[in-house]
Write a structure and sequence with these properties.
Length: about 120
């Protein structure tokens, strides 16, 4: 960078604006999340509930719909039409705004989220 004709402070300002902009557009929401450590309730609350809601219904604690929920896991009619294997796949590989968690957990872990968390949301209703 030393030999460019732009004043270095200008250049770094420009670069940081570009970087911030692209992070907003193409940012990976799962990037800053920790790896799954086996504490499934805690991981749901910390990593998944921000989009899906603590109760899986895509709403925050005030009942306001969350913008990036995508699916209401408490809707048992819809949930019952979904296969475990598809939910495992979406959890690992992501889909649209749903981030991929394949770097955070194994396939067996993802299956645990389906069985121990997601299926129970529908069963409660
Ligand atoms: C940044 C927001 C976000 C986070 C964090 C997130 N999800 Fe999602 N998830 C979504 C969105 C949006 C969809 C809908 C994707 C679509 O169908 O277009 C979705 C869909 C899903 C689906 C598929 C539902 C269906 O359509 O049948 C599963 C399963 C799922 N998420 C599980 C999880 C799990 C488990 C976690 C945490 C480990 C998690 N999600 C974290 C946003 C998120």
């Amino acid at each position: 960078m030393a030999n460019l004709n732009l004043p270095p402070r200008r250049l770094s300002l420009l670069l940081s604006m570009l970087l911030a902009g692209s992070a907003l557009v193409a940012g990976d929401p799962a990037k800053d999340l920790p790896k799954f450590d086996g504490d499934i309730q805690k991981y749901w609350a910390n990593a998944c509930a921000r989009c899906h809601g603590v109760n899986g219904n895509g709403r925050d604690n005030n009942g306001t719909p969350l913008p990036d929920a995508g699916f209401d896991f408490t809707d048992s009619r819809k949930a019952n039409r979904k296969k475990d294997a598809d939910w495992v796949k979406v959890t690992l590989q992501g889909k649209d705004k749903m981030p991929a968690f394949k770097d955070k957990m194994s396939e067996a872990d993802a299956q645990r989220f389906v069985t121990e968390i997601l299926r129970k949301f529908a069963a409660r209703h």
